[in-house]
């Protein structure tokens, strides 16, 4: 194995005795002190002309030596980019540093100095103070100062040009030696590595658990390992030197030969699945990877191959696919909408029920954010996040969803999914609209059943005193009639004038009071009749009726009812009709269903009379259609609507939102019983998306006289 070649220092690459001689000669010629310092170790590799003021004074004293190090650091920081840099240290001397780079690395620094510039004459007073400050021998210190070379700036620039070239020469020479040394070391290591690699690969070839084999260009086996022997169920002596046709099943041998010939012709690597006969005689699934084998010159010498026994993997994949299909079938056949969402809120599963419920196919929503697929879920993302973070089920009940003009109620549950590194949420949605309607119907039916008996008893109990009141009011009117001789005779016998008595009674509005008693009694009588009708099932005959005709007849009856007191007139209401022409006749009581329709139409007209429409017009939309096994009639108005808190009460007896005297509160109760008890249907109230009120009647289709 080839080891990393060590990187030597510059002292290992250059003979600095030669460099020392060059520096000495240059100092004799130019008088500029210079030296080469190792950038890593800080050792002086060569130097000449070091000044006494630096050696014996500045670098010998700890305080001034710190200034020298400050100068060295400043120069080192400014030559990292490869340029030279001059610096006047705090001790008053000039130094110039030139970097020496080898293979892109700063290995040494060429220093010039110490010296002074001619145009910067030495301030002896500064140096005298410095001698006093640091305790130098002033006389010796100033003598050393006088020995420091002084140059013009032009002279220094000429010397610097020479030394830059010298530094570049030293770097280039060192780099050449470095590259040569590295090449020699690498060659030696490669040679050793090849020997080690050959032995290593031979060991791997024999001990690796993956089946390996080689063939020559004639497709005869030239080598294999123990794992290949085990996979083929044959010793290598039986296979080496032979082609697959001599020991394999003929059909498989032909497959091997065809693929090997194709590899030799095209040179393209191969990976394919096939079979081998095991030592037990059974067939095993294997995957073969093959490539061409070359010698050192690049000439093709044969084929090298690797085999993998994938029998267990194939069986596991089949079982996994069966499990996946089973789970998918379970989710697809579930009666609930099942939606999978990953931890980022992106939809990754959408079952068939979800498609039916929301009218969107999986390809339209999978891969998209949940709030984009189902905008109404945007307000429930906090619930989904809570289910995922707190690892518990979150539930929402009876959430409204408006789709195709109908309001659906959904129960929503968020199940956290945390398994095998997969985080997400499974959302289950159930349309409980029908369940809630049935529940409301059951509650309403129980109320009606309990009230029915009470209504019947009350009606019979009220009838007796009510009859007496009406009869007495009628008898009073008869006893005061001037047209009956018996009344005149009784008045004369009593000594009074019947005509005068009548004038007195008329003046005191007594006859108006009697009329009010009679009208109130008759109204109470109608209420009692409705209560009796409410309490017993009608025996009205049934027949097959075309609902669209029945609805039209009800509209005609309602349009002829013009009552200024109740402020509604069908002549000013737009009637919109949406009928399904293919709806079959419905077996029902024409009179009773007309009564229900007339009641709904009048209620709609009365409600719309209280709304200011401005430039719009009040409108009633009538729909007749089918839904499964039921015929559906809808009466929808654009009036003020019904408060949601009051919708549960509209079918209760005696409950009304009208002004006193405008209604008995029994109309919708009787309608409810006609539809549910007499026709085995249902009636409910909804709020359309655009506002207003919608009553929905459902009657069974196909029910004949046998019912």
Summed up:
The chain contains 21 helices and 23 strands. Strands 1, 2, 3, 4, 5 and 6 form a six-stranded mixed sheet that branches. The protein has a five-stranded antiparallel sheet with strand order 8-7-11-10-9, with helices on both faces. The two termini are 96 Å apart.
Mean pLDDT: 84
How many strand segments? Answer: 23
Give unreliable regions as ranges: 1-5
Q: Indicate the percent of residues in helices.
A: 40-55%
Strand content: 15-25%
Counting DSSP H or I runs of 4 or more residues, the number of helices is: 21
> Quick one: overall form?
elongated
Q: What's the Cα radius of gyration? A: 56 Å
Largest sheet: 6 strands, mixed
Based on secondary structure, the structural category is: alpha+beta
**How far do the termini sit from each other?**
96 Å
Describe what this molecule looks like in 3D.
Strands 1, 2, 3, 4, 5 and 6 form a 6-stranded mixed beta sheet that branches. The radius of gyration is 56 Å and the shape is elongated. Helix 4 (124-134) packs across helix 5, helix 19 crosses helix 20 and helix 20 (590-608) runs antiparallel to helix 21 (667-679). The longest helix has 55 residues, at 153-207. By secondary structure, the chain is of the alpha+beta class. Helix content is 47%, strand content 23%.
């Amino acid at each position: 194995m080839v080891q990393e070649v060590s990187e030597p220092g510059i002292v290992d690459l250059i003979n600095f005795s030669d460099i020392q001689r060059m520096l000495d000669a240059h100092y004799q010629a130019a008088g500029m002190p210079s030296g080469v310092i190792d950038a890593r170790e800080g050792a002086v590799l060569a130097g000449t002309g070091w000044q006494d003021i630096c050696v014996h004074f500045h670098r010998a004293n700890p305080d001034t030596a710190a200034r020298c190090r400050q100068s060295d650091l400043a120069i080192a920081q400014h030559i990292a980019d490869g340029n030279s840099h001059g610096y006047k240290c705090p001790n008053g001397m000039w130094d110039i540093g030139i970097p020496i780079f080898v293979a892109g690395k700063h290995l040494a620094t060429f220093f010039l100095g110490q010296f002074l510039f001619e145009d910067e004459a030495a301030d002896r007073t500064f140096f005298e103070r410095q001698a006093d400050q640091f305790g130098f021998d002033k006389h010796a210190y100033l003598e050393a100062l006088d020995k420091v070379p002084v140059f013009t700036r032009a002279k220094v620039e000429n010397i610097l040009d020479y030394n830059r070239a010298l530094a570049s020469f030293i770097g280039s020479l060192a780099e050449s030696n470095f590259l040569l040394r590295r090449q020699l070391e690498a060659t030696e290591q490669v040679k050793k590595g090849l020997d080690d690699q050959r032995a290593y690969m031979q060991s791997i070839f024999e001990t690796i658990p993956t089946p390996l084999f080689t063939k020559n260009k004639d497709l005869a086996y030239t080598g294999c390992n123990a794992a290949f022997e085990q996979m083929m169920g044959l010793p290598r002596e039986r296979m080496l030197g032979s082609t697959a046709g001599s020991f394999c099943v003929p059909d498989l041998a032909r497959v091997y030969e065809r693929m090997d010939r194709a590899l030799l012709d095209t040179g393209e690597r191969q990976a394919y699945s096939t079979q081998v006969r095991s030592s037990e005689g059974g067939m095993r699934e294997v995957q073969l990877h093959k490539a061409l084998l070359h010698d050192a010159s690049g000439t093709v010498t044969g084929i090298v191959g690797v085999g993998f026994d994938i029998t267990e993997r194939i069986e596991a994949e089949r079982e996994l696919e069966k499990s996946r299909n089973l789970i998918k079938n379970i989710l697809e056949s579930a009666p609930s909408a099942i939606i999978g969402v990953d931890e980022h809120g992106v939809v990754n599963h959408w079952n068939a029920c979800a498609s039916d419920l929301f009218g969107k196919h999986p390809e339209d929503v999978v891969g998209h954010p949940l709030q984009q697929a189902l905008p109404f879920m945007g307000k429930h993302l906090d619930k989904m996040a809570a289910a995922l973070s707190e690892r518990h089920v979150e539930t929402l009940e009876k959430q409204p969803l408006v789709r195709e003009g109908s309001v659906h109620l959904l129960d929503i549950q968020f199940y956290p999914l945390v398994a095998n590194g997969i985080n997400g949420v499974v959302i289950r949605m159930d349309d409980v609209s029908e369940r809630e309607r049935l529940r409301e119907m059951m509650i309403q039916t129980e109320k009606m059943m309990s009230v029915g008996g009470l209504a019947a008893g009350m009606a019979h109990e009220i009838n007796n005193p009510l009859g007496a009141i009406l009869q007495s009011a009628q008898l009073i009117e008869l006893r005061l009639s001037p047209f009956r001789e018996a009344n005149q005779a009784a008045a004369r016998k009593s000594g009074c004038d019947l005509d005068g008595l009548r004038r007195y009674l008329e003046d005191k509005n007594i006859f108006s009071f009697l009329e009010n008693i009679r009208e109130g009694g008759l109204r109470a009588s109608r209420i009692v009749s409705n209560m009796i009708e409410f309490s017993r099932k009608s025996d009205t005959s049934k027949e097959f009726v075309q609902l669209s005709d029945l609805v039209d007849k009800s509209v005609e009856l309602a349009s002829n009812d013009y009552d200024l007191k109740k402020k509604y007139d069908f002549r000013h209401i737009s009637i919109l009709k949406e009928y399904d022409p293919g709806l079959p006749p419905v077996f029902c009581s024409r009179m009773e269903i007309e009564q229900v329709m007339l009641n709904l139409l009048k209620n709609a007209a009365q409600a719309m009379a209280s709304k200011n429409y401005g430039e719009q017009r009040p409108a009633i939309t009538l729909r007749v259609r089918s839904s499964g096994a039921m015929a559906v009639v809808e009466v929808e108005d654009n009036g003020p609507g019904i408060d949601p808190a009051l919708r549960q009460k509209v079918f209760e007896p005696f409950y009304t939102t009208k002004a006193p005297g405008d209604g008995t509160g029994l109309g919708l109760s009787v309608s409810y019983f006609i539809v549910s008890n007499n026709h085995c249907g249902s009636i409910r109230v909804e709020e359309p998306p655009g506002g207003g009120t919608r009553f929905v009647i459902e009657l069974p289709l196909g029910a004949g006289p046998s019912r």
